[in-house]
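Quick one: structure for this chain?
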Amino acid sequence: MYSLEIIKDLNKIKEMPNKWDSLIEKSGSLPLFLSYDWIINWLNEMGADVKPYVVIVKESEKITGILPLVIKKSVFINKLEFIGSSESDYLDFIIEKGKEKTVIQYVLNELQKDNTWDICELVNLREDSCNIEILEELLKTGGYASKKIKNWDAECPYLNIEGSWDDYLNKKKKKARYNLKREVRLLEELGNLEFKKITEIKEIERILPELFEIYNNRWKRYYTGSSLNDYKKRRFYRLLAVKYQQKNWLSLSVMKLNGKIVSFALSFIYKNKYYFYMPSYDVKYSKYSPGTIMVYYLLKEAHDNKIEVYDFMKGNETYKKRWANDFIRCFNISFANKCVKSRMLFRIYIFSMNVKQGLRKAVVARHILGNILNIINEIKTRYFSYVPPEAVWHISLKEKKAEKNTIREIYKYNKVLRYGREALLKYFDSVNINIGDEMLLPSYLCGSITHEIKKRGIVVEYYKIKDNFMVDIEDIKLKINHKKALLVIHYFGFPQNIESIKEICRNNNVLLIEDCAHSLFSKYNDRYLGTFGDSGIFSLRKTLPVYEGSILLENNKSVFKDEDSTVTRKYASVNKVSMFSMITKYFEYCTGISPRPIFLKNENMRRKYIMNNENIQIEDNRGISGFTQIILDKVDAVKVINKRRENYMFYLQNIIKTDKIIIPFNELPEGICPIGFPVLAENRNTIRKKLLNYGINLRTYWDYLPEDIKEDEFPVSHNLSKKIIILPVHQDLKFKHIQKVIEKINNEIFNC
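Got it. Here's what it folds into:
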């Protein structure tokens, strides 16, 4: 007696790892892309836009079949598909051997009773799977609208290994052998060429960020794009690599030239078969064919280790056919629910898939569309790039005298970049903070910072923050051992206990980095923040009316690499202007009406913007534009400071004090230039949404913490993140504007 259960709760899936993997063994399906570890990590890291739809078939309470599906909902179509289909080369049902037809027939009968899905698309089914033939037959006899499509990269080449490596090479044509030896020789002439297997888990974790960057740079301009273009996918592969190494399924190989990685292959080994999954190479060395040479070494190793099959997997690239002696095809099978609406949508869907397949086959079209997609991705992050030819800043700072009270006169900085993240990475380069180094960060910070640090392969640990936004000195003392650097944030313009922190860092030989993104112009004991530590990093656009700009102060010259730090490097500047901001601000100026609250009411839109901001690509050696420099040279810092302080004091004097709202900084000491007026409110989200109706958009800094800052370990940080609101004190605001904000805040606090 069969029964069926559809699991839509991720927690229920987490209860069945042993049963899941046990059925895979009984089914004979390849577990690499179907294992419990693959499935659960994919759902955890990349399943935000889909819902689990895992079909479990039982025979007398014993699981005999699993269909690992998700449902992806859009405006018009609700589609069933395999879990992780875009990252998986080979997929299939998990069904106990001998029961395939019975289970598939039962599943189809039950699925047609569910009207929550329109189309089921099953991709990357190998032709040697018995489930393809069974499914095709049952769909035909059942009267389903269905389509079997051969993938655009359907032919998966592989090499049946027989005999020795020399025997294999001797079967190649003489010219092919000559070209191969020549390619190896040309690369070896550049220096020391080394082929290495990475097996230690710590080393795997340290080296993966560098490999991800190589892969991303290789594929980012193709229509197919890079599978590593965001931090969630990178984290998925990092977690999976550790799991599969523990199972002895992972094979991670790198090829180094003079110590620099020029090629790598992240692959799998299962039952004496090698699966060539994710290879790539440094595009700077493409003319030396590093990818070909990597395959040469891997195949030689496979022969030496008596591997039976070397599977090049999906993708019928020419270089794979050069090595392989056979191939296997993969197919997609799609079918529609039996209702009329689903059948109509199915026709449209198949047409769109045919168009997409055709575009993917055309290499030139892939390049062109890849470049178009790059432009679209820029627009998605709300930025548009252009070069102002007559205003690019190519002059050194000494060539132009700074006017009185300007930012250049105050900080006498020598490095200006576009983003604070770029300044931080430039500092890492200066002091040799590299892969594997450990760094201590506050547990209350922006995710974009940790994203860039982890991409570098730097090991991160967090220290506690108190409920008044001050650092927990004792927690720093406990965790500072073996750290290369410590980052401290002066929140909202108010200084930390910087002298005590500096003393701890000095005693432990740790570099101190001051994050002054919130504290431009702020002082402590009549000394500017950012000048106490080994370096100071500032974000100009959080305080001044510019679209770009960050400053890197290098205070301790003894720790830097030798370089000319007296003048600004001649960066080829690109001005990144927010089109959305420019259009809406002009509209606001003309009409006094702001459309932004309409968009910002949507929490999903806000979250997507924040995530897109984290994924902005950082480019080396990019400075600020001449337009920004002109603005910076015209800004009177004293006027900015005085007006921001006046606006802050206006809040202090007029906002109603209740138990529903907490003001963390009840005083404004001399020397502080606040970035805003922070308050903590129990009903923060409700207040924010209501004020948006009045055209008042309140910042948070930050309502989304990095995911590895766990609430059970850092409850104070999460509490601050859930309650923080930043009321505006911008220098262009007059008291009448602030009075309006205060009135609405006071009203909403009492009504919530």
